[in-house]
Amino acid sequence: MRGQGPGLARRIRNGARRVRLPRTRRGWRRTYQAVVALTVLALAPATWLNATAGPRVRTVADAPAAPVAVVFGAGLWNGEPSPYLAHRLDAAAALYSRGTVRAILVTGDNSTHDYDEPDAMRGYLLRHGVPARKIVSDYAGFDTWDSCSRAHRIFGVDRAVLVSQGFHIRRALALCEAAGIDAYGVGVAAKHDVTWAYGGVREIFAAGKAAADAVLRPDPRFLGPREKGVAEALR
């Protein structure tokens, strides 16, 4: 690297000269229009999610009856549901207690031996009064699309109440609808902390992938054979 200092500085200066700012009002106007156009394109998927799924967001009290509640994973703390996930599970247990749903499908990540969201979710629901025979586990819900697609294709779910935080529920609704599930969603309230802020920002970027998944409808990462767990829980 020794001896390259002057040459490197010259290349940097030459590169800086190539990036020229607009010199006229017309040039600034075109730059502004380009920035606005790019911003609109970036936000279009999130706008689509809010417009299409927003009317189907409910609360525990006014969610319509459905055979199954689908609860999406939201991380573990020392092997137990994170506070965000615990709030989702509390809502699902309340839906079952009210008779709004007759079974609960917990879907999450079990990609490694020491990380098992579905079993942690199941244990939490058992401790909160949901009978074991009414809880069904999907161990390959690696993301929202996989969870929705597998719920329909593997577990035979056609109608459900989805349970997640408010910043995520619209994406879940749009993707489950694309997967073939007639769904309403319960948007669980969340403390406006760093996790909430991160989740909101993440949803802006995740909306683009959601739009692609809704159009292309790819196979989930792991499909596997049909399972009878939900049908048996509903008997």
From TrEMBL:
CDD domains recorded: YdcF-like
InterPro entries xref list: Cell_Envelope_Assoc, DUF218
Domain of life: Bacteria
Domain DUF218: 68-183
Cellular component terms (Gene Ontology): plasma membrane
Protein name per Swiss-Prot or TrEMBL: Membrane protein
Organism: Streptomyces chattanoogensis
